[in-house]
Each structure stands twice: as structure tokens, then as C-alpha cells.
Amino acid sequence: MWFRDDLRINDNAALAAAAEHGPVIAVYVLEDPALTGVRGLGGASRWWLHHSLDRLIGRLAEQEIPLLIMRGDPRRMIPRLATKTGAAYVSWSRRYQQPQISLDAEVKQSLRSRGIPAHSFPGHLLAEPWEVTTRQGEPYRVFTPFSRTLLTTLADTFPAPAASAIHGVGADPKRSRAELAELALLPTFPEPDWTDGLRDSWTPGEDGAWERLDNFLDSTGYARGRDYPGGTASSRLSPHLRFGEISPRAVWEAVTARLPDEEDAGIFQKELMWRDFAWHRLHHRPDLAITNVRPEFDAFPWAWDPTELARSTAGGRDGRRSPETTDDDFRAELSAWREGTTGIPLVDAGMRELWHTGHMHNRVRMVVASFLTKNLGIHWRHGEEWFWDTLVDADPASNAFNWQWAAGCGDDAAPYFRIFNPQTQAARYDPEGVYRAKWLPPAEEYPDPIVDLHDSRRTALSAYEDMKNHQARG
Length: 474
Prior knowledge:
Layout: E1 2-3, H1 13-19, E2 26-31, H2 33-36, H3 43-61, E3 67-72, H4 74-85, E4 90-93, H5 100-113, E5 118-121, H6 143-151, H7 173-182, H8 195-201, H9 206-217, H10 222-225, H11 238-242, H12 248-258, H13 262-284, H14 308-311, H15 330-339, H16 345-357, H17 362-375, H18 380-390, H19 396-407, H20 422-429, H21 434-439, H22 453-473
Parallel strand pairs: 1-2, 2-3, 4-5
Helix pairs in contact: 3-7, 4-5, 6-13, 12-13, 13-19, 16-17, 17-19, 18-19
Domain Photolyase/cryptochrome alpha/beta: 1-126
Binding site for FAD: 222, 234-238, 268, 393-395
Family: Belongs to the DNA photolyase family.
């Protein structure tokens, strides 16, 4: 069983299929970006992966299944391991983006050429991208009709094998944890240790996922409270779904059966379908993280430096600092946005929550993304790259898709002229200032705003009109 973003035992069709063919050997390969072209994980995701794998080692050991942990190119390593161990069957859960799709196809072909059956299984999404199409067989680009069609595909359920039905060849957790340590996923730089906040906020692993889901299902008021960052209505399941510690179908069915309020259940299930929509779009647009979906935005004058990330922080989680900047340099504003020192309270509270916990409330994510791309005029890719490195739920599809949505250049995007006013949003969704008070310093230490919200809004709208006029002129 080749584990990837499905770090769970229950409701894992690929693991169940492997178990049907005899004792199981499990393997995880951290794919080397230099060899595979697969985007490397950010710092917060690496922290999560380490702890999720550690817990998976323990869960598998209960069934005497060893977890072999490696780094490199699975096109070479998986066939070699299967041959060495005399595997009669190899399975894994499907991936839906390039270059992973082609990589997995190569592994499958290599195994089958050696006479070893190899099969992939669903489980990361509610429905496969090729199952949800228009009447013309084309992929959807608008969420509402997509969600209607998706609902018609959810009649069948995925297998949910019991852990007791799975057994292995004998586990050595100590060896697996030594191999995990060799991946060096955790930071090694000196204090301050930014992982303290992550440890305080999260319990990675399958057990943590189900505990989080149970707590959510015991609550009420999701539909009414989900937009209020100072409350507790959010499920906070996103990192568990990102690493496959729980399947979206399992969450869907649990919400249907146990969430007491029908409106709460329906609204939350729309969020699960939005996640699927992002993945379906990435399946058809593998360049989603680097290319505007709407090509007219190629002419939009966002501030952009393709070398900035490599020259500065690589996202920041590795402990390095941004380069020195001048006051008239957009990089100074980008640094202020990253550090939560823009002088705009709701924006800064969100960015500080992100740094401390590896997470940010969804309403606030929209506000900080709008502020970066529209009030500061900085390219959405700078924001996407920062979130990729600092979010524990940095999902290849949702991260890029939602940044393009917020910037106005993506599929089914918010109109460009919809600019979230952080002051209005704070008054409406944090009226008592609970969220801002939690994350901001005392008022006397707070900086002045780095930009005027009204003037910068007018500038953004003017740039949008210029872009439209440029497009009209051809």
C-alpha cells in the first residue's frame, strides 16, 4: 500500500484492496521536487506531515503493518520495493493533478510490466473529476451547476473497511520513526520555535480528525456563526481533509446523520462541494497556482517579483528574514502584510493568527486576500506562496483556486470590483472585537495604516477599468 494524501486506516479503499491480497506492507515516499517536479511542501505542512506520519506508524503497528518511509522518486522506488518484497499486488489512492497523474501512470506501467498488478482507488474527493460534467461532457466552471450535478453522483458510498480486517507482516515502529526523522520535516533553527502555536492548536492524525469531527457535530449554529472569526462555529477539519486523515465522504455522511440542524448540514456540505470544485478545476487546469484563469488579467498591473520568494523568506517558516526594502518598494508592504503590521486591525489579526496557529478563519482569509491584491495591488501569487508555506491546510487545489477567486481572475470568481473593506467586515463579523483583541497588541503599540482604504480602492477600480479598455482595444 503506497500512502500519499490518505493517511488513514478507515474508509481507505486502497488499503482495503491491498489487505484482500494478503499481509500488507505500507510505504510513504516524500517526493523529491528536483526529481519529480512535484511542488515541495511548505513549512507548516511539513510539520503536520511529520506528526501525521508518526501517528499513522502507531495505528498501522496495531495491525502489525510496517510503514517504510523514504525520500526520492517513486517511479524508481515503488517498483523496486515491490520486486524486492515479492509483492503480489500494489495499490494507492488516486491523485488528480499534474505531474502526479503522469507519475502515477508511470509507476503503474512499470509494475505491470514486471507482472505485478497495480490499481488506484478513489477517496480524496466526493466524486471523480470525470464523473461531474456538463451535458456536453465538459468540466464545469461555475459552482452552482457543478454542485447540483455533484449531488446526483453521491448515491454510492466508498468502502469503509474495519481496521481489524487488515493485517501486516510484522511492524517495527522504532525503525519507521527513525526513517521519519531522516526526512527532517521539522525545523531545526533556534528559538523562537514557531511550532509551539501549532502544537497548542492541533492534533494531527486520524484520531485527531475524528475527535475534531465529533466536536463539530455536537455543536449547533454553523450556518449562522461560520462567518464570525471570534466564535467557534467552524469545523477546523481542513488540515485533516488535506492530508486524508479523514475522507470527505465520511465527513459528508456523518454530517447528514448527526448534525442536528438541517440548515447547518446543508451549508457545511456546500463547503465540502466547494473543495471538490477546486480540485476538479485543478484537474483541468494544472497551472492553477501560477497562471491567471482569465487571461485578460495578464495585463493587470499587479506588483510582482518572480525572484522575491527565493531571495527572501521562502515563505518565512525556515526562520530567514525578508530582504531590506525601501518605503516606496512594494516589498515593504508585502512584508508588513506577512507580519501583520499593516495598521489595518482585521488584516493584521488574521495574519498573526496564521503565523501562530497555521490557520486562519475563512472570512478573514477573504479579507486579507482582497486587501493584498486590491488595496495593496500586489500579485495574488505572492499571497498564494505565503499561504502555501504557513497554512497547515495548504491544499494544492483550494489554496490556488481560492486566491484566484479572491483576486477576481479565477473560475466563478468574485467580481473584481467586489473589494472587501476590512473595517466594514470587522464591524459586521467581529462587532465586539473579540477576534481582534485576541491577536493584536495593545492599542498604544499599534502601527498606523500603510495605505488608505478608500484611495486604494479607487486606484484598484481604475486599474481594472484600464485593463478592460486594454482588452477592448485588442
